[in-house]
Amino acid sequence: MPTVREIEQALFDVAPRELAMEWDNVGHLLGDADWPVSRVLVALDITEDVADEAIAKGCELIVAHHPVMNCRWLPVQSIRDDTPQGHLLLKLLRSGVSAICMHTNLDAAEGGVNDVLAETLKLVDPGPFTDNQVGRCGLLAESMALPDFVRFVCQALQCSGVRYADAGRPVHQVAVGGGACGEFEDAAIAAGCDTFVTADLSYHQFLDAKGKGINLIDAGHFPTEDPICAKLVSYLSGRFPELTVEKSASHREVIHYYVEGE
Ligand SMILES: [Zn+2]
Questions:
Q1: How far apart are CA 245 and CA 262, in angstroms?
Q2: Which residues are found with C-beta within 5 Å of the ion, ligand 1?
Q3: Assessment of whether the complete model's pTM goes beyond 0.85
Q4: How far is the centre of ligand 1, averaged over its atoms, from the C-alpha of 181 (Å)?
Q5: Where are the domains of the chain?
Q6: Model confidence over 204-214: pLDDT tens digits?
Q7: What is the CATH number of domain 110-224?
Q8: Residues 158 and 230: beta-carbon distance below 8 Å
Q9: Which is the CATH superfamily of the domain at 4-106?
Q10: Distance from the CA of 222 to the center of ligand 1, in angstroms?
Q11: Within 13 Å and on the Cβ side, how many CA atoms surround 80?
Q12: Quick check: 115 and 136 in contact, CB under 8 A?
């Protein structure tokens, strides 16, 4: 059986640590590197539900995208059972479950989060458009009206709704940035894109989109990144045939859309 350390190395082979942002926290974050692993659960985030699922299924390792601890939105100064995060980390450790997180290194990697998103949205010849190689931009085989593209994005990413701003342009050259990539809007414009699909956009970005001449689509953080999980499952299964690897069944979109009148 492979160890946690060997699985971490296999993941760094496809998403090298050097590609991670300097503020990020990636790699083997929790547990013993020498623990042998027979079952792996793959999820976008290590939530309480995902931890319970891993324990119930006898998984010794969770491979996740977002760091389970000590990154920009989740600083760790203490690990105490009376805080939600401390409770989660202690539960994993007490149950012998390790965690490996592949975050911004996997965003930038070839075949990573953004290549998978571009592939899911059927972009032709997608390539990087940001200095840090995080986003991808490519062409649709045929240009589409924005409402048709919005419908296609919803179906392809299995989201129940998107927020979007119409700049009055048909959709042909599309930039994608899985998760919170709104900061790359100007780079998408500079690359000549008419449309940008990402998540976590602000009111002011939508307000200014028409003036800047770019259609903005916020398809949600979970829907734009979740497609990477299936790729991680197939990669790890192929690399370690003796491992049982599965995608979490308990982690799903937590944001719901209520639309008045429907
Ligand atoms: Zn993310």
A1: 39
A2: 179
A3: yes
A4: 9
A5: 4-106, 110-224
A6: 999 999 999 99
A7: 3.40.1390.30
A8: no
A9: NIF3 (NGG1p interacting factor 3)-like (3.40.1390.30)
A10: 7
A11: 4
A12: yes
